[in-house]
Amino acid sequence: MLFGPPDQWPDQDLIGYSEEFDPGLALLAYRSGVFPMPLDSDVIEGQMGWWSPVHRGIIQPIELRISRSLRRSARRYTTTVDTAFDEVLAGCRDPAREFGWIDERISGVYTALHRDGYVHSVETWDSAGRLVGGLYGVHVSGMFAGESMFHHPELGTDASKVALLRLVTELRRAGVDLLDVQWLTPHLASLGAREVSRARYLELLSASLAKPYRRWWRSGGYESFGDFELSGVAVYEEIIGG
Questions:
Q1: Among 13, 170, 174, 192, which has the highest number of CB atoms less than 10 A from its own CB?
Q2: Can you tell me the distance from the alpha carbon of 181 to that of 118, in angstroms, rounded to the nearest whole number?
Q3: Average pLDDT of 84-91?
Q4: In the predicted model, is pLDDT for residue 215 greater than 90?
Q5: H/E element holding 66?
Q6: How far is Cα 122 from Cα 119, in angstroms, rounded to an integer?
Q7: What are the tens digits of pLDDT across the range 177-204?
Q8: Which comes out higher in pLDDT, residue 41 or 64?
Q9: Beta partners for 236?
């Protein structure tokens, strides 16, 4: 096994690091339940970290929750798929963002994987046609690994969440049942994300990888979420606020 037996991984989120990093290695890592993220230069400069959180954040598409406020926000936007990948990556990489981690190596590898059909972006547009949010991630068999999302702080209230709604729509169409979000955050928990143990995540991943890879992604395809019943995705509504 590329990273050794999981029962021998350290009891921490970082399980290893290497100088080597390329698209093929990244895909093998995802299939092993591991993802890349550069190490802080104060720790080990120039090394790629390989991570498998002890407590993994996941969303199962059928468990998505939509609040009333998000439902209202979604009516203001339209979404597309694989229409502006470079722009989405740039938005996620913005050096002004706190805790930015996307460097030249990450950008190069995920751009290559996007060209090969493994990495996809979702874009959120306002009524003036401006890109105000989006996300990107890796699709392997029945699993999608969300890598990063962003929204414009002034123009894009809830824009990244609306991108996630479109993502879940596409995952349902593609038969994907596991959305890996790496670590649980309050932002993701509000949408139905939860934590599972590393061992449980690897079990879910194994079942997802047994599913066939379906190229269901439709490039472009403006879609509005004014009426969620038309989106083809089953959701639960969380009633919070007006």
A1: 170
A2: 17
A3: 96
A4: no
A5: strand 65-67
A6: 10
A7: 999 999 999 989 988 999 999 999 999 9
A8: 64
A9: 65
Phi, psi of 178 (to 5 degrees): -135, 115
Average pLDDT, the chain: 86
Mean pLDDT over 32-43 rounds to 84
3-state SS assignment for residue 114: helix
DSSP labels for 129-180?
S-EEEEEEEEEETTEEEEEEEEE-TTT-TTHHHHHHHHHHHHHHHHT--EEE
Q: What is the pLDDT of residue 229?
A: 39
Helix extents (H) in 6-144: 23-31, 68-74, 85-93, 104-115
CA distance 74 to 52: 33
**CB contact set of 202 (below 8 Å; sequence gap of 6+):** 6, 33
- Pairwise CA distance, residues 148 & 165, whole Å: 15
Domains parsed from the chain with CATH numbers: 6-53 (no CATH), 56-238 (3.40.630.70)
Q: Are 3 and 9 in contact (CB under 8 A)?
A: yes
Query: Quick one: tokens of 178?
Result: 């596991």
Task: Kindly state the tokens that stand for 126.
Answer: 């306002």
CB neighbour burial string for 37-59, b if at least 16 within 10 angstroms, e if fewer: bbbeeeeeeebbbbbbbeebbbb
The token duo for 167 is: 């993502």
238 pLDDT above the threshold of 50: no
Amino acid sitting at position 175: G
**Per-residue model confidence as pLDDT tens digits over 153-172:** 899 889 999 999 999 888 88
Q: Hey, how many other C-beta atoms are within 10 angstroms of the C-beta on 138? A: 21
